[in-house]
Every structure is written in structure tokens, then in C-alpha cells.
Specification:
Layout lengths: L2 H9 L2 H15 L8 H31 L16 E3 L5 E3 H15 L2
Antiparallel strand pairs: 1-2
This protein binds zinc ion.
Length: 111
């Protein structure tokens, strides 16, 4: 999946992401044979409006997150933790969660 699309999907509400994913699936299998051109156009127009709406909402959330970063795993703010790391795909993780992951890994290695 496109990285940008993936990023946007991750910022959407579960419901919105489901709508978009199913729409994209529908659009890509091109089974519009039994639909009239007018119907297809209307459907696409509605789809486009809906996608724009959802995209705008997700972009707003992405911006908010950039201005107001929080750990994606425990929702801690940078002021509440020692360190906050940011990945290329705009994921934030705090030192507490990294330590927890590390501990889990170590446990796994010893079993
Ligand atoms: Zn965290």
C-alpha cells in the first residue's frame, strides 16, 4: 500500500478507514458492468466528496499530532517522558514503551 495512504488510514476513525478501504477495493476490481454510466458517475461523485471529507479530517488529525505529539502506544506526551522517538512514518514511541518492548524481547529470548 502507498505509504502516504497508509499513514492517512492510520489517522482515521475505524469506521472511516473501513469505508475507504472497501471503496478502494470496489474501485480497483472494476466490476461496474451492470451499472449505468449515470449511476457510476453519481457514485464516483459521492465517493469523491466522501473521500475528500475523510481525507480532510485525517489530515487535520495528522497536523494536530505534529503540533501535539504523543506516544502512539501509551499516549504519553513528550513532557511526561524522558525521550520521545519519531519514526519516518510519523509514529511516536516513548522511552517507557521502548523499555517495555525490550523487556518483552529479553523474556522471549530466555524461554
Ligand atoms: Zn509510550
Amino acid at each position: 500500500m502507498d505509504k502516504r495512504l497508509q499513514q492517512l488510514l492510520s489517522q482515521m476513525d475505524m469506521e472511516d478507514a473501513k469505508i475507504i478501504t472497501s471503496l478502494l477495493n470496489k474501485l480497483s476490481d472494476s466490476s461496474l458492468d451492470d451499472v449505468t454510466l449515470e449511476e457510476a458517475e453519481k457514485r464516483l461523485e459521492e465517493t469523491r466528496a466522501k473521500i475528500k471529507q475523510i481525507e480532510a479530517k485525517a489530515l487535520r488529525k495528522l497536523k494536530e499530532r505534529e503540533l501535539n505529539p504523543a506516544c502512539n502506544f501509551c499516549s504519553s506526551k513528550p513532557s511526561e517522558v524522558k525521550h520521545m522517538l519519531k519514526s519516518d512514518s510519523n509514529l511516536y514511541i516513548c522511552n517507557n514503551c521502548i523499555e517495555a518492548c525490550y523487556e518483552q524481547l529479553q523474556k522471549l529470548q530466555h524461554t
